[in-house]
Design goal:
Blueprint lengths: L2 H15 L1 E2 L5 E2 L30 H20 L7 H16 L5 H13 L1 H8 L5 H16 L2
Antiparallel strand pairs: 1-2
Length: 150
C-alpha cells in the first residue's frame, strides 16, 4: 500500500472509531481528554492553580494543545506509524511553535521531542492523554525532522 493509501486508511480508522463528545472533541478507547490539561503544571510565569489570573488567551491555548495531543493520540491508538504523513502533518504545528522560540534546526527539534519523553512532568502531561504518547510524539518529532527538515 502506498503512502496515500496508508494515510487514507489511518484517517478511515480514526473516523470510524470516533464518537462525538462535548465541545467538538472526539473519544476513543485509551485516550483521555483532560478538561484542564495544564493543572499542576505550573511554570515560573503561570500558576496553573490560579486560573482567574491566567494571561489572556491561555485557556484557548490550553484547549488547542489538548485537541492536538488528542489527535496525535488517536493516530497512535490506531497504530499509525510515527513517520506516516498524517502523523507528520500533526507534528507540523509543534515544529511551527518550536520555531517561534528559535528551535529552527532538525537537531534542536529532535532534542525537544526527546525532552518531552524524558522530562518527568512533561512526560506525565502527554501520557495523561494516552499512555505512551510522550514516546510516540518523540518518535514523530524525530521522523518529522528527518523527512521535512532535511
Amino acid at each position: 500500500m502506498g503512502l496515500v493509501g496508508r494515510r487514507e486508511s489511518a484517517v478511515e480508522v480514526l473516523n470510524g472509531a470516533r464518537t462525538s463528545r462535548g465541545g467538538g472533541s472526539m473519544e476513543m478507547p485509551g485516550i483521555n481528554r483532560p478538561e484542564y490539561l495544564l493543572d499542576g503544571f505550573a511554570t515560573p510565569l503561570v500558576d496553573t492553580g490560579d486560573r482567574q489570573n491566567w494571561p489572556e488567551g491561555l485557556d484557548a491555548e490550553e484547549r488547542d494543545l489538548a485537541d492536538r495531543m488528542v489527535r496525535l493520540a488517536e493516530l497512535m491508538v490506531a497504530d499509525t506509524r510515527a513517520d506516516d504523513p498524517a502523523v507528520l502533518d500533526e507534528v507540523e504545528w509543534y515544529h511551527e511553535a518550536a520555531a517561534r522560540y528559535g528551535l529552527t534546526t532538525a537537531e534542536l527539534f529532535i532534542c525537544l521531542g526527546q525532552l518531552c519523553a524524558d522530562d518527568e512532568p512533561v512526560r506525565r502531561l502527554f501520557d495523561q492523554v494516552s499512555p505512551g504518547l510522550a514516546a510516540y510524539q518523540r518518535n514523530a518529532v524525530a521522523a518529522y525532522a528527518r523527512t521535512r527538515m532535511a
